[in-house]
Amino acid sequence: MKYKITCSECNKDNTIKWCKRKTQNKGLIQRYKCKDCNKFFTLDDGFKRMRNSSNKITLCLDLFYRGVSTRKIQEHLQAFYPHNSSNVSIYKWVVKYSNMISKYTSQLKVNCGSEIQVDEMEYKRRKDHNKKGVEHNWFIDSIDLETRYLVNSNYVKSRDNQELKFFFNSIKNKSKDINTITTDGFLAYKNIVKKTFGYNKKLKKYHINHKIVNASRGQGFNHKVERMHNSIRQLTQNFRGFHGSIDSAKSIMKGYEVYYNFIRKHQALNKCPYELATDLKLNSNNKWSELIYNASQKS
Fold first, then answer.
1. What is the pLDDT of residues 87-99, one digit of tens each?
2. Which of 14, 102, 208, 222 to pair with 299, CA 20 to 30 A apart?
3. Is 266 helix (H, G, I), strand (E, B) or coil?
């Protein structure tokens, strides 16, 4: 993957290569010199000042979101990398780069179809490593039926009105092509969906068609979003749920959103959802690394 080399001081691209610096774990790192301001610098590809190589870090991210626990990833590193990292370091990489990438991808314009399915999953989060102090949380998500793109997701403490308003406003801001939102029979959805998308006084109808599917009444299921939930359950069962702060749980699930949209090929589409839903082009085989680089340039 080719990077545009710009000076970290003056942001100009009048640069030349200037020797290499040897590091213990990352090997040789190319240094550059800016011919305008005489500044010496190394390229910030999103892994600057990290003590491990980008390939090693992104390998751990990919294995984690394919369902491998951090301890098993650590065992893998012991076999193939001489300088091992602890499972705690791997967990910190997952949290750090999930936040970095999701902050970048959340700003992408989404070309959705006409219908969005919204649903939620309940999780029990342990406040510490013991089984005491269990809190019930929710993972709320929305998927575009046409592109299978995960439009928005959030791990929240409860399904209160404030959290739901923020969630639906994010969907509204990402795409203007939605005319139908399908949810289950949770009563809070009805008013919040209508208030978020508004009422057309001239046509005397709401801007959005809210379709409610209540499985307990024999009205079927939101199959597309439920199928995605099965994949998420498989992942979270491998590391036995969440423990610790709610912020780390949010970061992990935001990373799954990235994995689902940009890394994992959808079987029915035979391509990643972002290829249909966004204008983003990823040319590298290591999409994790390319997304991290893009995110670092936007920050």
1. 899 999 999 999 9
2. 14
3. strand
Question: How many CA atoms lie within 13 Å of 115's alpha carbon, on the beta-carbon side?
Answer: 12
d(CA 207, CA 166): 18
Fold of 1-43: N-terminal domain of TfIIb (2.20.25)
Q: Domain-by-domain residue ranges, the chain?
A: 1-43, 115-244
Instruction: Specify the amino acid at residue 276.
Output: L
Please tell me the distance from the alpha carbon of residue 269 to that of residue 256, in angstroms, as a whole number.
19
3-state secondary structure of 180: strand
Rounded CA separation 71/144 (Å): 34
H helices within 53-187, ranges in order? 54-65, 70-80, 87-105, 161-174
Dihedral-angle region of residue 167 (phi above 0 means left; psi in -120 to 50 means alpha; beta otherwise): alpha
CATH superfamily of 115-244: Ribonuclease H-like superfamily/Ribonuclease H (3.30.420.10)
Cβ atoms of residues 182 and 220 within 8 Å:
no
Distances (CA, A) of 121 to 14, 35, 134, 170, 292: 52, 55, 16, 19, 28
pTM (predicted TM-score): 0.85
Please give the Cα distance from 200 to 207 (Å, whole number).
6
Mean of all residue pLDDT scores within the chain:
85
The three-point CA angle 281-285-291 to 5° equals 50
pLDDT digits (tens, 9 = 90+) for 16-45: 888 887 776 667 878 888 888 888 877 777
